[in-house]
Design a protein that fits this description.
2 copies of one chain form a homodimer. Chain A is built from 4 helices and 8 strands; from the N terminus they run E-H-E-E-E-H-E-H-E-E-H-E. Chain A is α+β, with helices and mostly antiparallel strands.
């Protein structure tokens, strides 16, 4: 089963409010809300756009994966997330093709969305997330 | 006027066929076609997905901007393109907010699409393209 659509493109930034001065105030992408996510130690600005979304992600600790990425590479495009119908089927299909997965089995967010990350080694350098919405 | 939707996310790769072995063969994103674009010295695989598109871009010379980016940063997410209704209005709005533009006025592709790039300096590190389709 192919992916259905782009769910979101995530941009890692130093500071969400500063980034919003471009994405919201200058460019005009509507802001839905900003979430202070303690589990992942990031603030996330959700900016729905058509059937997809732009997410601005700012770490608020220094030891998370996102914080280390920001420290090493600077702000910019961070990951691409695609919607799939059947995340277990998608992961099985990828494993059968020897694709390296960061999450071998789906994890679940508080809202019930199941997700898994595919390792950039297998995608040509792209951190890829797959979502199956409830 | 806010942007309408994500038009495409562009991924720079060493070789389009090798990248397709992941994106098409393993993940299952349908390939529309591969274009050998002499003007920009890149091969581009167009992979429509929902209302958006994934584009795999491989330079075939060593002196283009994309080739230099690939040599410096390696393969991965390259730029984000958003559709707008009125590209001249969007550029005027950005200029009024002191946003740095790579293209101060829209350029036109052979298919009539007008486009302009916004400098990563102003977006928090993201090379951003705006499209106005004909």
């Amino acid at each position: 089963m192919p992916p259905i659509k782009i769910n979101h493109i995530a941009i890692v930034v130093e500071d969400v409010q500063a980034a919003l001065s471009f994405w919201k105030d200058a460019l005009g992408v509507p802001l839905q809300h900003v979430e202070h996510n303690e589990d992942e130690a990031v603030d996330i600005a959700f900016m729905p756009l058509g059937e997809g979304e732009i997410e601005l992600i700012a770490p608020f600790t220094e030891d998370s994966g996102v914080a280390k990425y920001l420290a090493k590479k600077g702000s910019g495009l961070h990951h691409l997330c695609l919607d799939v119908d059947d995340i277990e089927g998608a992961l099985a299909q990828l494993k059968a093709k020897d694709v390296e997965l960061i999450n071998e089995t789906p994890r679940t967010r508080p809202d019930g969305t199941r997700y898994a990350f595919v390792h950039p080694k297998s995608t040509g350098g792209v951190l890829l997330e797959l979502y199956e919405k409830v």
